[in-house]
């Protein structure tokens, strides 16, 4: 008997644990990957909330356009990037492979594609800022192009890691379902 405070069982020196069952590695990996993906989804929600607030504040004209610039065109389709996160959260409780695949595909469509478009849309303004030092849009006194490129870099990393970890999680779930079918 194992006991934290009491005496050790008679006839053992504590080295008899090797025969005990261990949790399969794909289950351990599944738990770890779910945790990492949830952290990335939270980071994505922070980015998504900031962009949503920018769109709302600028369109409702709650503050001057000198303080918060009008959103770029890529920001509107990026608002749909909440869909992959919802699919991801739905997939986790019951290890639902279908929802995880939908999450991965929609992350490419609703997250990565608008970010690529945003990079191309803002490039001429970034080049102008680099060459001439002139910016015409501002967010809290900073060049909107510089701020939004920083957001783009962070968002690409978040979504890239999210897709990567989702693929590894999908492989882990396939391993467990294949083992169940063999039995």
From TrEMBL:
InterPro entries hit by this protein: Jagunal (IPR009787)
Membrane topology of this protein: Multi-pass membrane protein
Membrane-crossing residue ranges in chain numbering:
37-56, 76-92, 99-118, 138-158
The entry's localization annotation reads: Endoplasmic reticulum membrane
Q: Pfam family example for this protein?
A: Jagunal
For whether the record's keyword set contains Transmembrane helix, the answer is: yes
- Claim: Endoplasmic reticulum is one of the keywords in the record: yes
- Print the keywords alphabetically: Endoplasmic reticulum, Membrane, Transmembrane, Transmembrane helix
Q: Organism's domain of life?
A: Eukaryota
Q: Where mainly found?
A: endoplasmic reticulum
How is this protein annotated for GO cellular component?
endoplasmic reticulum membrane
Gene Ontology BP, a term: vesicle-mediated transport
Xref: PANTHER family: PROTEIN JAGUNAL HOMOLOG 1
**Family classification:** Belongs to the jagunal family.
Q: What name has this protein been given in UniProt?
A: Protein jagunal homolog 1
């Amino acid at each position: 008997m194992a006991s934290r405070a009491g005496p050790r069982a008679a006839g053992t020196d504590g080295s008899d644990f090797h025969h005990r069952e261990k949790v399969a590695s794909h289950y351990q990996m599944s738990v770890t990957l779910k945790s990492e993906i949830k952290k990335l989804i939270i980071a994505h929600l922070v980015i998504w909330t900031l962009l949503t607030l920018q769109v709302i504040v600028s369109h409702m004209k709650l503050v001057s356009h000198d303080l918060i610039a009008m959103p770029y065109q890529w920001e509107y389709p990026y608002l749909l990037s909440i869909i992959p996160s919802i699919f991801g959260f739905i997939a986790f409780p019951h290890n639902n492979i279908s929802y995880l695949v939908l999450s991965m595909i929609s992350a490419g469509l609703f997250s990565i594609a608008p970010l690529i478009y945003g990079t191309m849309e803002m490039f001429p303004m970034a080049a102008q800022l680099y060459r001439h030092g002139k910016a015409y849009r501002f967010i809290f006194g900073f060049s909107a192009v510089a701020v939004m490129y920083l957001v783009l870099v962070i968002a690409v990393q978040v979504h890239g890691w999210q897709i990567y970890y989702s693929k590894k999680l999908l492989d882990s779930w396939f391993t467990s379902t294949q083992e169940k079918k063999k039995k």
